[in-house]
Amino acid sequence: MKNAEKYARGYYMPPKKCMKWAEKDYIDHAPIWCSVDLRDGNQALIIPMSLEEKLEFFQKLVDIGFKEIEIGFPAASETEYEFCRTLIEKNLIPDDVTIQVLTQSREHIIKKTFEAIDGAKHAVVHLYNSTSVAQREQVFRKSKEEIIKIATTGAELCKEYKKKANGHITFEYSPESFTGTEPEFAAEICNAVIDIWEPDADNKVIINLPVTVEMSLPHVYAQQVEYMCETLHNRENVIISLHPHNDRGTGIADTELGLLAGGDRVEGTCFGNGERTGNVDVVTLALNMYTHGVEPNLDFTDLPSLIELYERVTRMKVYDRQPYSGALVYAAFSGSHQDAIAKGMKWRDEKHDQHWTCPYLPIDPHDVGREYEGDVIRINSQSGKGGIGFIMEQQYGYDMPKAMRENFGYKVKDISDKAHKELSRSEVHQIFKDTYLNITSPVDIVEAHYTQKADELIGAKVKAVINGKEVECSADGNGRLDAVANALTTEIGMEINVDTYTEHALERKTTSEACSYVGINVGGSIFWGVGRHSDIIVSSVKALVSAINNAMKK
Ligand SMILES: CC(=O)SCCNC(=O)CCNC(=O)[C@H](O)C(C)(C)COP(=O)(O)OP(=O)(O)OC[C@H]1O[C@@H](n2cnc3c(N)ncnc32)[C@H](O)[C@@H]1OP(=O)(O)O
Ligand SMILES: CC(C)C(=O)C(=O)O
């Protein structure tokens, strides 16, 4: 980049330091939420939503718990107007939900807006005009006084139309392009509007401070918000609303610091859809609060169904790494993360801790409709024994000895590395079965008979098939497994020492099978085998034979 001198900071600091917000370290209660999906989100889409799509999205927003929903700009198009009328005439707005409509400060647009909301029980009429230096100079080519006049004329008109309206109407005013406006001027124009609207405890007004274009660090916006909170007239009857966009990628930080600075209300969209880089993502905001133990008053327990609807009606995609919502945000591929998550889950099961503290997972995936199976531990060449062992245990019931987990882990990652792809759980299971389970070639045992001998020895008489040839052999050992291993040693010409033996029951729906794991030491190397059978002795011998077969393949 060779042209930095082309740019200069386009924001203005308040005339005094406003840093009280910095003393707080978290947001201790949910703000008033207002969804602007159907207006700011919709106006930024390649193909704006149809009437049916808007109706479906509106219903979902209601289900999630939004009590204020900006449904559009009714003067903008026939669809916008019809949508508003349909909601009202078909009685689709619950009594505790307020619709909000946006209007420019132009008489014919205000008039049409009031016509659109006729019959609504509650509505917010949202009036805006641009106040930034750039807009004043370049777009409107007007003085500060003339810009104030646009706002006050609109405010007066709204007041007049309200007198004739039959529902409960709340006013909202936005000094649009607030972030490029001198804070003193923003306060002056907002105060002029507040003075006209004369809010009181029963008729509060909303002053919305939009980050129309994000142009500063988040703490600058926080200072601007705090300054406005301290400077606005009739503050106790003014609801301070925040409406951040995300041009610098810090819309969430703007909103969170803005709330610390005195914001009461947040306008945003699901997944951050909206003009350019989008509006602030309310899902992230709400779940950030939730993970601090604060009830957000929005219910995202079925996030997958919201994503499905959103992607269908907006024709946008939720990014794979979108906080809380993306397809990959719970996935751990890498070994050390998987190991820590698997241990964290186990710890949680054992301790029944009240709080969620699992490493690497800032939220319990179940709380937002995601699954541990499939969503969390995923296998590729970066994976390790901890995660792979976790899948084998959780999903398939195999509790491998620790050393065998390592052996299997390397086997799986090697296959993934060479195939250069992620492996599904069933593929991992198949590798396990092919590698270790009841392996019968080149050695298979057809029959085995055991006798209890003196000195606590066990004798084994074995009929086996080795490389396709039937043989009979026998030996003693200090247990059945040892005896069989000794019997086979002479026939296969390989010294076998049983190094590890573990077993457990494998519960199935109606029966229970025994599962045995045997590690044998052959010439200093360990080879593993697994046996499954309804009989524990047979299962252990099958594990031994599987291990021998693995050793013979080397
Ligand atoms: C930051 C935001 O997201 S603000 C919301 C933006 N959303 C939208 O604009 C979507 C819906 N808008 C529309 O459909 C159209 O713009 C309409 C129907 C509202 C108006 O349409 P038109 O009058 O044909 O066009 P347009 O919006 O270009 O009008 C621009 C004129 O309005 C003036 N104007 C723009 N905003 C405002 C405002 N808030 N208050 C008063 N006048 C305004 C401009 O200065 C310009 O004036 P000029 O004609 O004297 O030059
Ligand atoms: C109308 C206003 C609130 C707006 O959408 C913005 O400034 O981004």
Annotation keywords:
elongated; Aldolase_TIM; 554 residues; 14 strands; alpha/beta; binds 3-methyl-2-oxobutanoic acid; 20% strand; single chain; three-stranded antiparallel beta sheet; binds acetyl coenzyme *A; 3 domains; eight-stranded parallel beta barrel; TIM Barrel; Double Stranded RNA Binding Domain
Question: How is this fold's topology laid out?
Answer:
Blueprint: E1 32-35, H1 37-43, H2 51-64, E2 68-72, H3 78-89, E3 98-104, H4 107-116, E4 122-130, H5 133-140, H6 144-164, E5 168-176, H7 183-197, E6 205-211, H8 218-231, E7 238-244, H9 251-260, E8 265-268, H10 282-290, H11 303-314, H12 335-351, H13 372-375, H14 385-396, H15 402-419, H16 425-436, E9 443-452, E10 458-466, E11 469-477, H17 480-492, E12 497-507, E13 512-522, E14 525-533, H18 536-553
Parallel strand pairs: 1-2, 1-8, 2-3, 3-4, 4-5, 5-6, 6-7, 7-8
Antiparallel strand pairs: 9-10, 10-11, 12-13, 13-14
Helix pairs in contact: 2-11, 4-6, 6-7, 7-8, 8-9, 12-14, 14-15, 17-18
Bound molecules: acetyl coenzyme *A and 3-methyl-2-oxobutanoic acid.
InterPro entries: 2-isopropylmalate_synth_dimer, AIPM/Hcit_synth_CS, Aldolase_TIM, IPM_Synthase, LeuA-like_post-cat, LeuA_allosteric_dom_sf, LeuA_N_DRE-TIM, PYR_CT
Binding site for Mg(2+): 40, 243, 245, 279
Organism: Ruminococcus albus 8
